[in-house]
Structure formats: C-alpha cells, structure tokens
Amino acid sequence: xxxxxxxxxxxxxxxxxxxxxxxxxxxxxxxxxxxxxxxxxxxxxxxxxxxxxxxxxxxxxxxxxxxxxxxxxxxxxxxxxxxxxxxxxxxxxxxxxxxxxxxxxxxxxxxxxxxxxxxxxxxxxxxxxxxxxxxxxxxxxxxxxxxxxxxxxxxxxxxxxxxxxxxxxxxxxxxxxxxxxxxxxxxxxxxxxxxxxxxxxxxxxxxxxxxxxxxxxxxxxxxxxxxxxxxxxxxxxxxxxxxxxxxxxxxxxxxxxxxxxxxxxxxxxxxxxxxxxxxxxxxxxxxxxxxxxxxxxxxxxxxxxxxxxxxxxxxxxxxxxxxxxxxxxxxxxxxxxxxxxxxxxxxxxx
Length: 350
Hints:
Layout: E1 9-11, H1 18-22, E2 37-45, H2 52-60, E3 65-73, H3 80-88, E4 94-99, H4 104-115, E5 122-126, E6 131-132, H5 136-143, H6 145-148, E7 154-163, E8 169-172, H7 191-194, E9 204-206, H8 207-215, H9 227-237, E10 241-254, H10 270-279, H11 285-297, H12 303-311, H13 317-329, H14 335-346
Parallel strand pairs: 2-3, 2-5, 3-4, 7-10
Antiparallel strand pairs: 1-4, 5-9, 6-10, 7-8, 7-9
Helix pairs in contact: 10-14, 13-14
C-alpha cells in the first residue's frame, strides 16, 4: 500500500485479507488489463461511516476500467477511518490516509490533486454519500474518446440524480427541459455569473488537466472556492475542453443534512437566504476566484478573458451593474437564482 505525504496524513494498516474481500463481491485491481484505462479516483471523507461503504463498493465494482481509489479522511471522529481500514485496508488498489489537520472539503480534494501520481489515464472525484452506476467511468471514457485525441486538457461532467437518504430519485440536478436551446452551459463567460454547473462528483479529467492544476497550485486555497469550480475555471480559461453530458446520470447523489448546499428549491426561503448572504462576513467568493486565477494563470489566459476577469475586481457601482447585466443574460438560471446573484453583486457581496 502506498503512503501519501507522511507529514500530512496517516496511512491505513491492512487488517482484512484479499480473499475475504473477494467474497464480498469487490473487484481488486486486474492483473491483465493492458487495454483497460487506469483511473485514479479521489474520495474525500469526513464522518461518513453511515454510507461510505456503499460508495466505495460502487467505485470498486466499476466495469471495463482499472480503478485505484485514494481515500483521504479529514479527521473523522465517528470511526470512518477505522471502518475503511478494516474493510478495504488490504486491497492493493485502495489507498486510505487520514489528515492530521482538517482541511475542509475543497482543501482535502485539492491536496489529493497535488499528491496524485501522474501515470494514470484519467482522474475522478468522489463524494462519500453517493452511489455510482457500474458503467459511470467507462461511459465517461467512451464519451470523451474523440475529444481526447486533441491532446488538450479535458474534463467530462454529467447530470446526476438527486436522491433522498434511501436513494429514491427526487429530481435530476439539471432539468433537461431548460437546456433544449442548445446554449453552451460550459461556456467560460457564465462561470462567474451563472455559477458552476460542473458537479465534481460526476467529473473525469485527463493527465493534461492534472498537470495544469499542479502547474501553479494555490498556496493557500482561498475561502469560498470549491474544487470543482477551480477545475472548471482552470480547464476552460487555459485552452482546455469541458464536455457536459446532460442526458446521462451515472451518480445517485444522496442528499443528507451535510451536503444539501445549493439544492434548497423552496421559494419561501429565498428572501431569507438572500438576506443572510448579504449580512454574512464571508469573503467575496467570485472576487477571490478571479483574483487568485489571474495571479496563478495570468500568462495562460487570453487578453479578452483577462479583461473579463478583471471586471470582477473593480469596486465601482457601474462595474457591478455590468456584472448584473451579464447575470440577467444567463439562459439557464431560474428567476430567483438570478435575483439572489444580482442583489449580492449590486451590494458588493459577490
């Protein structure tokens, strides 16, 4: 078993035989897999003992690909780390580590990016509460096969099923009837105005993208920036390709009390939500993103894109009005989501 950064993590100890695990139906790494794509899945865990085994099993049972799972536990106190050690500790294609210092969700994922080996064909993120369809990864591999021939940084993302705690489907993350116009929902100009539509738990990306993420890593990951947002920004603005597979949902996302941010669709709570955001002392996330991105990747960004990003760093009301107009033009946001974003922008809380 490999050990990640020994200064920041603690390696798991093997405690269950491979024979015992095979009897559970889990698939260890194949020894005859020359033609199969090697995929490195990064799973961030924190107090996830209730559901995490279902998700790890669904990753290990992926068809027609060879999977290595890196699980980085962010200091769980509910026995998650010990459970993972006991169940999966002896598998050669499972790496279980625990952080000595809690990094938070985005920080945990980004640390795994910086520590990831560079000899895999593709890389993927995983949440701890989800369950994957057995064809999720091979479907993504086939979907981007032609685009991969360009040699550019490449990211695949898809729709997903939002489910209750028993995995009963509630709705699609992105309703397909709102995207029939053919608009490019991965257009980079929508990122800072329309919000990120790339669900990190659906993403698959290639070595070029990994190298780009590692090229100028943020020294201290800024508050308010999510790892999947950063993945989208870096790929889109640095000459890469972002493909969105709207009609496929290979992830069942379990909505629990810990992961429901951004999914509350009850209109009666919209006003209180907006007011709470306006009163919040949290850093201005879009400004942080634009500033951090310009600092780290300025030499790789086209001139027009630089000017667009700089607009978000301006302080004048006229500039904020310009941003608000961009939000109005975003085709795929609901009226109340637009109102939320516009009000925050006009009051300088974006």
